[in-house]
Write a structure and sequence with these properties.
The chain is an alpha+beta fold and 207 residues long. 31% of the residues lie in helices and 22% in strands. Strand 9 (145-150), helix 6 and strand 10 form a beta-alpha-beta unit. The protein starts with a strand and ends with a helix.
Length: 207
């Protein structure tokens, strides 16, 4: 895969042309990581130090930086873009708000009990329960088996193992559970808009 780059009128912005469709219904402008919650590709690009804004068009990606030299940034950007398109992953996943509602959408009796138990697991960094923070994407049950799909606020979060173990222990505490599996995902990446209204109110976040 060969990715071309083009200069723009703004020296702080560079255009990347991957040679394939990026976003058919673009352009989509993203000014920060929270705005990139629907896009795994954008989330990974925002993880690169110095990236401050992105725009996805039909066949291009523009990246805006806050400083530094493109010579140092370009290899990391090209690597992320190439890895994404080679993986075959979508540029956009489902809307973040729809994802945030997954945990409340599965409402079998056992799934509801497990979800309630997961509210006892507190994120040590934010001091709030993982369900209302939006870290629990789904609770699936098949018979007495439980499958929890969850995330963390950031990749490499130091509390990742603590939260996974907490979710596992919480699920096992529910009467009738015979098997538990906790799966971690970053597709889509977590964003503050995934919080419940109660959590947003606690942190003073306005919709």
């Amino acid at each position: 895969m060969f990715i071309q780059t083009e200069a723009t009128a703004d020296p702080a912005t560079l255009k990347f042309l991957p040679g394939r469709e990026v976003l058919s219904d673009g352009p989509l402008d993203m000014a920060d990581g929270a705005a990139a919650a629907r896009s795994p590709l954008a989330a990974h690009l925002f993880e690169i130090p110095g990236v401050t804004a992105l725009s996805f068009g039909l066949d291009y990606i523009t990246v805006t930086k806050d400083g530094g030299d493109w010579q140092h940034l370009k290899p990391a950007l090209l690597g992320v873009i190439m890895e994404h398109f080679m993986s075959g992953a979508p540029v956009l996943s489902e809307p973040a708000k729809a994802t945030a509602n997954r945990a409340s959408a599965t409402r079998g009796p056992l799934a509801q009990k497990v979800t309630d138990a997961l509210r006892l697991v507190i994120d040590p960094e934010l001091g709030y329960n993982i369900v209302d923070l939006g870290l629990v994407y789904d609770v699936r049950t098949e018979g007495h088996d439980v499958d929890i799909i969850m995330t963390t606020t950031t990749r490499g979060c130091p509390a990742t193992n603590y939260l996974k173990e907490g979710a596992n222990d919480a699920a096992w505490s529910v009467e009738g559970v015979e098997a538990v599996e906790v799966n971690l995902t970053y597709d889509p990446p977590w964003a503050p808009e995934m919080m419940s209204p109660e959590a947003k109110g606690h942190f003073g976040i306005m919709d």
